[in-house]
Design brief:
Length: 338
């Protein structure tokens, strides 16, 4: 899949990723890039720190989150030598391209963009004025994202469903520029939603999400992971009572981390009344720890030696910049008739 294609992923350094993010987004993104690279394609993976400042104004928090995200991707197997791994803010051509794209971005697109609309809805629900606390960075978010994408002649942008609209906006803006100058100045991107990735339920059965407070932490010590796993909701049925595994939350989470044989074993044990809730929680704990232990070691190493990571990000930016520079030049030549 994706032979010869350029794949681009941006991640906002906000929040601390949990097990659900790792299994459902981070690992699949790394894997997709590896597949593309193995088939003659390219992977751009960057940290969207300009996007993060719309919501986070504290520099200590911003730099800490950036550090965590960078180390998580490296721990998860991203190869900085084979991919383009960089910080958005290290590529000054991105805001320059954004400025040109603004002239081709209908304001109505921004009014309809999800991130902005969600903020307005939240204000309305709280009885506040529509634009309360909304800055221009949030409002014009999709245009900056479009610049991120078109700068590198991206073919494919892997996204979660919430980001589809943003990629469509990027495609529309690029399409109107091409149409205006009657030239393929910008490559038109496509979004890609992977339907096979794990959706990991949280410890209360809703989707695992920091805002629900139902997460299993990632790369913390075994004790914190154990604490989360042992608070997974169960009922008071005795062990001997045969159970349908699909109704058991521990089993559903297990499916995202265990091997097929392990899943079968837990399923059989539940159906036959041979495994109790304590047993299956311990099985889940072992599987989670086993899944993350190597990555956790790498993560702790990079967090403690961040200057190495800093060097990788700088090299990544040095590799990525000439591509963005070429795009900017194409645009400026066309726009200003140079
Ligand atoms: N908007 C994305 C998010 O919230 C982050 C992002 C910024 C991005 N620029 C991008 C994603 C370009 C893909 C491509 O997760």
């Amino acid at each position: 899949m994706f032979e010869g294609k350029t794949i681009l992923t941006g991640v906002k350094p906000t929040g601390t990723p949990h097990l659900g993010n790792y299994l459902g987004a981070i690992k699949p993104a790394i894997k997709l890039g590896q597949e593309a690279i193995a088939n003659g394609g390219k992977q751009y993976m960057f940290i969207a720190d300009y996007h993060a400042i719309n919501a986070e104004k504290n520099p200590e928090i911003l730099s800490e989150k950036l550090k965590e995200i960078a180390c998580i991707y490296l721990a998860g197997g991203l190869d900085p030598n084979k991919s383009y791994f960089y910080r958005q803010s290290d590529i000054p051509e991105i805001p320059e391209i954004t400025t040109i794209l603004y002239a081709y971005t209908p304001k109505g697109f921004m009014n309809k963009a999800h991130a902005y609309k969600a903020a307005v809805d939240k204000n309305r629900a709280a009885g506040k004025p529509d634009d309360d606390g909304i800055n221009m960075g949030l409002y014009t978010y999709p245009t900056l994202m479009a610049a991120d994408i078109v700068a590198y002649d991206t073919d494919i942008v892997p996204v979660g469903k919430d980001q589809i609209q943003h990629v469509e906006i990027a495609r529309d803006i690029a399409g109107s520029i091409n149409a205006h100058y009657n030239k393929e100045l910008l490559h038109l991107p496509e979004y890609y939603v992977d339907e096979h990735v794990a959706v990991v339920p949280g410890i209360d059965g809703r989707k695992m999400s920091k805002s629900y407070g139902n997460v299993i932490p990632l790369f913390e010590d075994d004790k914190s992971i154990k604490k989360a796993i042992f608070s997974i909701k169960t009922d008071s049925r005795p062990m001997e009572e045969p159970k349908d595994p699909e109704e058991i939350l521990v089993y559903q989470i297990y499916k995202a981390v265990a091997t097929d044989a392990q899943i079968q074993e837990m399923g059989d044990g539940l159906r036959q009344g041979k495994l109790g809730y304590g047993h299956i929680k311990n099985m889940l704990l072992d599987a989670v720890v086993n899944e993350i232990k190597d990555a956790r070691e790498k993560y702790n190493y990079y967090m403690a030696h961040f200057s190495e990571v800093e060097g990788m990000l700088e090299e990544g930016a040095a590799k990525a910049r000439p591509v963005a520079q070429a795009t900017l030049k194409r645009l400026k030549d066309a726009v200003f008739g140079r």
